[in-house]
Specification:
Layout: E1 2-7, H1 17-28, E2 33-37, H2 39-42, H3 50-61, E3 65-71, H4 79-90, E4 101-107, H5 113-126, E5 130-137, H6 145-164, E6 198-202, H7 210-220, E7 228-232, H8 260-268, E8 273-279, H9 287-295, E9 309-315, H10 322-334, E10 338-344, H11 350-370, H12 378-392, H13 400-408, H14 419-431, H15 435-443, H16 445-459, H17 462-471
Parallel strand pairs: 1-2, 1-3, 3-4, 4-5, 6-7, 6-8, 8-9, 9-10
Helix pairs in contact: 4-9, 10-12
Family: Belongs to the SsuE family. Isf subfamily.
Keywords: Flavoprotein, FMN
Pfam families: FMN_red
Length: 472
């Protein structure tokens, strides 16, 4: 059989750690042909010649199956592969993919690899491909015979599906787009932003679009128009997508000589208020947004929006794309920012959109003045534990800047530093070996759990507490 390997890595297949898994499979399945298509490398500048694009499509057309391969970049696929997927729709060549069996191979640290897999399965469903599954790998998997065996079995299952023409189940229904046209009403600016800068980042290209109108409505809600800056990603000189070279890990300096690093440092990092305004494109935003997110990697694994109040203006069927909604929450939390609101045009009610935008503008300023950030959930806590373990170990070699940041901010929080609780836990584990003690404790477990909060509440001086809160 012929398997087309769509390589989304910006690196050549001979130096890509992701493609090392393919070279292994080539050795293990010599009876099959694996045609490697380096679309990531060809689209580093987000452009590809028509002939090269058609050559790739013809190989896919003649293949029995398609294996999408890529490193996970900022919770999704690389911008280069995102652009390739956009071109499929823009050029109307979906038929080259119809009914092809498909699978996904990704390499990552297991940091939001699931959102990348969700996206790719949805894309395969949209292209009417027969999606078999994904394999999430780390590069060191090839060093472990048991994990190599698992990878071998995954490919065996994929090839078995193709050979026996087995049916597959679809997970994602087609997106339904609306023709609704947002008609904003004149707004009286009432939100005082004189002491707080508001930054709106967008990729809008059509001044008559719903998104452009929503941006204008938000800006007009603020009293000080001069303190609202709208930045279009297409006005920033970004020469290409992240190359995955990791050279920035030593001193946060990117190999590209363009405007991105300066723009990010001066206009994005730790701004008091940031609005992301975007239209949905397939199951995410446009490749320009993905380019922006990927290039943030020059800043390492350190949060870049600490304390920022985040708002979103989204044009498109966001509620039909739960994976994107999770990405919005995850990116905000992992940036240690505060998600104030996400406003879309999908409710098809101009008056409600106006009210929502006005309310978000007010909330952005108020929460910024309070310096409020929602407590982290698993989205942030789990993600940072992945990076903590990496950077504490082998990761300190390529990412010394990250190591310094984590150390300075006391983020190497293992083993637990709660020594008193550890001592109590060890003592209780000994005492609980006695049945009578164990049963007595079982009847009082509820009171034990609430003991410390109740003790604090009894001692609470409300007036003193209020004074402290107001002062803070």
């Amino acid at each position: 059989m012929k398997i087309a390997i769509i390589n989304g890595s910006p690196k050549h297949d001979k130096i890509s750690s992701t493609m090392a898994f393919i070279r292994y499979i080539e050795r293990m399945y010599p009876m099959h042909t694996f045609e490697i298509l380096n679309v990531g490398m060809k689209l580093v500048r987000m452009k590809i010649a028509d002939k090269s694009f058609m050559d790739i499509l013809n190989i896919i057309k003649n293949a029995d199956g398609v294996l999408w391969t890529f490193p996970v970049y900022t919770m999704l696929i690389p911008a280069q592969l995102k652009r390739f997927i956009e071109l499929i729709t823009e050029k109307g060549v979906d038929d080259f993919f119809t009914n092809k069996y498909a699978a996904v191979l990704s390499t990552s640290l297991n940091f939001y690899d699931h959102t990348a897999h969700n996206y790719m399965q949805a894309i395969c469903d949209d292209l009417n491909m027969k999606y078999v599954g994904f394999y999430s790998a780390k590069i060191d998997f090839l060093m472990d015979i048991k994990k190599r065996k698992n990878w071998y079995k995954f490919m065996a299952n994929f090839l078995f599906h193709i050979e026996n023409k087995l049916p597959v189940s679809k997970r994602y229904p087609p997106l339904i787009y609306s023709n609704f046209e947002y008609q904003p009403t004149a707004v009286n600016p009432t939100v005082d932003n004189s002491k707080t800068k508001v930054t709106i980042l967008t990729d809008v290209r059509d001044s008559s679009s719903n998104l452009a109108k929503m941006i204008s409505q938000l800006k007009n809600a603020f009293l000080d128009q001069s303190n609202v800056e709208i930045i279009n990603l297409y006005d920033i000189n970004i020469k290409g997508g992240c190359l995955g070279c990791i050279k920035c890990g030593f001193d946060n300096k990117c190999v590209y000589r363009d405007e991105y690093v300066t723009f990010f440092k001066e206009k994005i990092m730790n701004q008091p208020i940031m609005i992301y305004a975007a239209e949905t494109t397939d199951r995410f935003y446009s490749h320009r947004w993905k380019l922006y997110f990927d290039r943030i990697f020059h800043n390492g694994h350190t949060p870049s929006l600490r304390g920022t109040q985040m708002g979103y203006l989204i044009s498109g069927p966001l509620t039909q794309i739960p994976n994107l909604r999770q990405l919005i929450s995850a990116q905000t939390e992992c940036g240690q920012a505060n998600l104030v609101d996400v406003i879309t045009d999908e409710n098809e009610n101009s008056e409600l959109i106006d009210i929502s935008i006005q309310t978000m503008a007010s909330n952005l300023i108020r929460l910024s003045q309070l310096e409020y950030v929602t407590p982290p959930t698993f989205l942030e806590v789990g993600g940072f534990k992945v990076f903590r373990d990496l950077i504490y170990g082998i990761g300190r070699i390529p990412f010394p800047s990250d190591y310094k940041f984590f150390k300075d901010n006391d983020m190497f929080d293992f083993p637990s530093k709660e020594h008193t609780l550890i001592a109590i836990g060890r003592l209780s584990s000994i005492l609980f070996k006695f049945k009578k003690i164990r049963e007595k404790f079982r009847t009082k477990i509820g009171k034990v759990m609430i003991y410390q909060p109740e003790r604090m509440l009894k001692k609470l001086d409300v007036e003193k507490e209020k004074k402290f809160m107001i002062k803070a």
